[in-house]
């Protein structure tokens, strides 16, 4: 049986990444990546909007190691925000701090984020900082806290598989947070390893954040979790404008439409760009059913 750990290993394997990039996104990824250019991403978002779905776009890439690459990534984020504004689509921006130089120079990363947030603020838009692996967690939250002193149009994600998730939720009370289970391989010293423990803690932090009166972006494809959160919101008189559901582009599209038809806000996470390999491998790791996408991609070549 192909395991989660196997795909997480592949996500960081340089040889396999090189081979996959030569094959191109037909290796299953074309089903879950909205093309390689900003325009392709905008076209995808427009089609989602026509179905009543909101979106957030993410230019794929992570772990840059030079100032030039970090500045180039920030410039690309700004061009993406400008394209969103020009197109008039319902869409936020998601990004990773390692793209913007977090591993190069914290002040460079901070400067890049401020440039991005200024553009987003001018267009009344919102920027989500994606949470990365545990080694970047404290640095991400520290930089976020500094940004929040000047900007209220920025939030992040909290991963339900981490032991400290509940503590972080309390510290971030009042912030718009994306709540996720987590997609990286983390040490037993920091994260739950059994799926039932992850699921239990995940639902717990969602409820915790909602009861705090904070905006919750519930990012899951788990129909059991979705049903439980709908019931919890109703029982606790939490209005539908205080939370939303989020799913990945290309996954459970029928359920996305059903959730929207029930009157809930449904936001689709739309990745794009040519650095798709690591993202795609982590999606395969999350759910064994996702392997079917890769098989169909190979058969369609």
From TrEMBL:
Highest taxon of source: Bacteria
Residues annotated to bind FAD: 131, 159, 181-183, 220-221
Pathway it works in: Amino-acid degradation; L-proline degradation into L-glutamate; L-glutamate from L-proline: step 1/2
Domain Proline dehydrogenase, residue spans: 41-293
Gene Ontology MF term list: nucleotide binding; proline dehydrogenase activity
Example of a GO biological process term: L-proline catabolic process to L-glutamate
Enzyme Commission (EC) number: 1.5.5.2
Cofactor(s) in the UniProt record: FAD
Entry binding sites for substrate: 96, 282-283
InterPro entries registered for this protein in UniProt: FAD-linked_oxidoreductase-like (IPR029041), PRODH_bac_arc (IPR008219), Proline_DH_dom (IPR002872), Proline_oxidase (IPR015659)
Manner of cofactor binding, per the entry note: Binds 1 FAD per subunit.
SUPFAM superfamilies, A to Z: FAD-linked oxidoreductase (SSF51730)
UniProt keyword terms in alphabetical order: FAD, Flavoprotein, Nucleotide-binding, Oxidoreductase, Proline metabolism
Organism for this UniProt entry: Paenalkalicoccus suaedae
Record flagged with keyword Oxidoreductase: yes
Name used for this protein in its record: proline dehydrogenase
Reaction equation(s) it catalyzes: L-proline + a quinone = (S)-1-pyrroline-5-carboxylate + a quinol + H(+)
PANTHER family cross-referenced by the UniProt entry: PROLINE DEHYDROGENASE 1, MITOCHONDRIAL, PROLINE OXIDASE
């Amino acid at each position: 049986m192909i395991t989660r750990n196997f795909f997480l290993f592949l996500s960081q394997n340089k040889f396999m990444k090189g081979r996959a990039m030569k094959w191109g996104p037909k290796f299953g990824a074309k089903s879950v990546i909205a093309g390689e250019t900003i325009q392709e991403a905008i076209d995808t978002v427009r089609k989602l909007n026509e179905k009543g779905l909101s979106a957030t776009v993410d230019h794929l890439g992570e772990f840059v190691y030079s100032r030039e690459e970090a500045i180039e990534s920030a410039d690309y984020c700004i061009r993406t925000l400008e394209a969103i504004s020009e197109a008039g689509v319902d869409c936020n921006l998601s990004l990773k701090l390692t793209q913007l130089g977090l591993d190069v120079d914290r002040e460079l990363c901070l400067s890049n984020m401020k440039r991005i947030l200024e553009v987003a603020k001018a267009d009344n838009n919102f920027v989500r900082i994606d949470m990365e692996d545990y080694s970047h967690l404290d640095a991400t939250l520290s930089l976020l806290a500094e940004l929040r002193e000047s900007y209220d149009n920025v939030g992040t994600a909290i991963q339900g598989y981490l032991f400290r998730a509940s503590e972080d939720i309390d510290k971030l009370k009042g912030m718009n947070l994306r709540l996720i289970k987590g997609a990286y391989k983390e040490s037993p010293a920091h994260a739950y390893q059994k799926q039932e423990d992850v699921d239990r803690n995940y639902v717990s932090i969602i409820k915790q954040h909602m009861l705090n009166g904070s905006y919750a972006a519930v990012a899951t494809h788990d129909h059991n979790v979705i049903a439980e959160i709908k019931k919890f919101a109703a029982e606790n008189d939490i209005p539908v404008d205080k939370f939303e559901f989020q799913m990945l582009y290309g996954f459970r599209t029928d359920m996305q439409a059903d959730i929207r038809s029930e009157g809930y806000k449904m936001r689709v996470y739309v990745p794009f760009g040519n650095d798709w390999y690591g993202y795609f491998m982590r999606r395969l790791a999350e759910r064994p059913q996702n392997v079917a996408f890769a098989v169909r991609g190979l058969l369609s070549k």
